[in-house]
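Title: Prediction job returns without error message
Component: structure pipeline
Severity: low
Priority: P3
Assignee: unassigned

Description:
Job completed but the reporter wants confirmation the result is attached to the right record. Sequence as submitted:
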Amino acid sequence: MASANQMAVKPAYSIGTLVTDWGLYEKMRESMRQHGFGDDCEFLTIDNSASNQADAYSGLNRILNEARGRRIILCHQDIELVDDGREQFELCLAHLDRIDPAWAVAGNAGGSGFRQRHVHITDTFGVFRSPGLPARVFSLDENFLVLKPEARLSFSRDLTGFHMYGPDICMIADVLGWSAYVIPFHLLHSGEAKTGKPFADARAAFIAKWRRALRHRPMQTTVTYALLVGENCPIWYARLKQRCLRIAVRWSSTR
């Protein structure tokens, strides 16, 4: 059992993974150790090797609740560090701290707009080195995610499965006033990037959830009211809709 002093010392990093293949996981973990992520790190897992004990959303939320590290890494079991190690990783995070103290989540691949991708990875499709990194993005690939614990981020409770949770946590960060970045930290990802029906279903659920979450809505407090609409909605439309709501309320109260 750890002593009180040991419990009081926070790990430098909490590294969390959903595991379906312990052989792949141990290979990943050994590559992390060899590249500087050693005894001052904690490794957290969800064991899905025999059956699915948790999907990505619920399982990684469990890991986030347990993590004690000063920074949290959520990664796939099929990644390996091959050249960049802890020194480069910490240089990347220190640079983010300087240019944007409000960063909360980072990764090695993501998108900042339609057909605007930023990637720094070697995978089954090739070697990718996007220029101009770090780049602020609105989605991140799930193979490697770095979270800042003080942002108190989590994945959506009302989504399930093993896809789209990278974009989901980027959306949550944005709503809470934090930002997301692709950083120039290189690793090897040997995943197959499967899509198919599970991916299509997850994408549809993701779109439906965020369409619902970002819907127009009237907000009534005890002292004021406001109509909340998207920034891309013309202000005249917002004012007209709010006026129509007032008329509708007055009309209903006189009937």
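Comment from assignee: result matches the submitted record. The longest strand covers residues 116-123.
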